[in-house]
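If you are new to this repository, start here. Below is one unmodified record pulled from the training split, so you can see the exact layout before writing a loader.
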Amino acid sequence: MGNFPYDAVVFDLDGTLFDAEEGIVSSVRKAMEEMGLVIPQGAELRQVVGPPLRYSFHDLLNVPAERLDEAAERYARIFRSEGMYRYSVYPGIRTLLRVLKENGLYVALASSKPQELCEHILQVYCLRHYFDRVIGETDNHAKLGKPEMIRRALPEHYRRAAMVGDRLYDMEGAKAAGVDGIGAVYGCGSEEELRKAGADRLVSDADALRELLCPGVPAPRGFFLSMEGPDGCGKTTQANLLEKSLRQMGFELVRTREPGGCPISEKIRQIILDTENAEMCANCEALLYAASRAQHVHQVIRPAVEAGKVVLSDRFVDSSVAYQGGGREMGVEMIRQINEPAVDGMLPDATVYLAIDHDTAMKRRLSASRPDRLELESSAFHGRVQAAYEELIERDRRRFIVVSGDQPAEEIARQVLRQVLRRLEPGCEQEGGSTWKES
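And here is the target side for that same chain:
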């Protein structure tokens, strides 16, 4: 396994893989409110992240011993219906897990949460397929404790193992289990707490953790995703929703658009869409789009994908093929030739197309804001655009993800996310998309 210092790595869940503070604290607050109890003045609620909740309810929040079961039950109900959907995977964690698995390292989880809840959270956030073993508590009253959970999480044979966590319980558990403790300072525990608990190493973020666990290993190639559709299809709204969900799930994302996406390309965009430039000929328009695209690919898209990030672009070269090749009747082949040096081999890995009748879409668009130069074109023009898109999809069905744009925005978002996840993470086809919901 090359120069990897560990061949087995065990992770804590809250504060290590996930920024769990909002989800846990909001659930604790609501549980206390339902019970008619007041949170003690000066209580630092972020300290409830990490240790078993019964301890926090009793020691930090002064819940009477006879009401601890009630507090735990109320919290569990609220957390499962609301709190867990307010988690977010720390930036860089998904890339780290991918590198570990692709290089054959053993990866496990040891958490004080119930076993089935750990499994469920990992599945919702499309991370379960990265873990060889998941260990959590199986009984709310008979606790295994962190050392025993770490022991159970470890493989039968290993050369050297580490426990990665953000609280003193993780570091103390690592020592008791006979493995190294790596303190995640970016979580809820302080550097002082982790040092006093015996952490062998401290890391400031997931990138530093990757460099420690996988020294010298570059991030794997990222992913280029574009969104297309006729004007007024709801594309920007859906791109916003998709961006929010992907970021929450730990994908390192670069959001961009065409024409535009970088300073030079944005200046070209202003020229293209300015309603005062009504005399612009079709050839000039097509070449300006290609010029904007060339700079965009060079300055934004290629560097981000090569750095392992997900690029989400609102339109790309398919728009030129549809609008200039179809709408302007310049022909598909001519537009492809014009754009070949601009695209420079950087076609999207997947393209989401929101399918909706162009007349319906344009009515939406015109009711929302002032139209630009292209949106002022005739219905016949937009009909040719739609037909060109449909021809593109027919030619390249493997790349396109087609979702009906004529349904509620929430349902469109759910379908888009589910299908995009299948492309981004082939190993998690049974995870995430069907159980995800907006926080």
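Two things worth knowing about this chain: The mean pLDDT is 91. Residues 327 and 384 are 5 Å apart (CA to CA).
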